[in-house]
Design brief:
Layout lengths: L2 H21 L5 H25 L5 H26 L2 H26 L10 H20 L5 H33 L10
Helix pairs in contact: 1-2, 1-3, 2-3, 2-5, 3-4, 3-5, 4-6, 5-6
Length: about 190
């Protein structure tokens, strides 16, 4: 167990903490939830940075890091959808969560074919993740009903990240299309 893996575990542990605090009748609930999510978002970046810098990449980290991110984002989006109860919040949340399911399945399938690198994370995906994390933090801080700078900026960033989500999904599917196309003979693993 190394520091990057501990940071990944921390992010997973923060998920139920976020949920519990979200429902507590605390006056500072919005601030605390936004802070927890911001810490989780920072550990997402920091654990990857440390793993590469210290040459401490592990199979555990390679598997659990993206899982922790997806659990944290999906949970926060579900909490926001429930809190806001508005169509304009539900649509980008569905797009983001749906894309994560599609791309996770695509990566697993491409890995079975020995072609995981053709759907490796790209710059669009990294931008999408950064905007998503900022948007969710702002929306958790703003809290329902939507108001103030953080609320409006958060929803704008959420829509931009949803657009980048669709764009990155298109890029990944396009890269995998030769192996997905019903008109292409199935390729054999290398």
């Amino acid at each position: 167990m190394n520091v990057p893996n501990l940071l990944t575990l921390l992010r997973i542990i923060l998920v139920p903490v976020l949920v519990v605090l979200f429902y507590l009748p605390l006056e500072s609930r919005a601030f605390i939830c936004a802070l927890i999510f911001m810490i989780a978002a920072f550990t997402d970046w920091f654990d990857g940075y440390l793993a590469r810098k210290l040459n401490q990449t592990t199979p555990f980290g390679a598997f659990f890091d993206p899982v922790a991110d997806k659990i944290m984002v999906a949970t926060a989006l579900c909490l926001l959808v429930e809190d806001y109860r508005e169509f304009w919040m539900t649509v980008p949340a569905m797009v983001i969560i749906g894309r994560e399911i599609v791309i996770s399945a695509l990566r697993e399938w491409m890995a079975e074919l020995g072609k995981r690198t053709s759907v490796a994370v790209n710059m669009i995906g990294k931008m999408k993740t950064a905007l998503q994390m900022m948007a969710i933090t702002m929306l958790l801080f703003s809290s329902s009903p939507l108001n103030g700078f953080f609320g409006y900026a958060g929803i704008a960033l959420l829509y931009v990240s949803a657009i980048l989500t669709l764009w990155s999904m298109y890029v990944y599917l396009k890269a995998a299309w030769p192996d997905l196309s019903p008109f292409t003979k199935p390729s054999q693993p290398d």
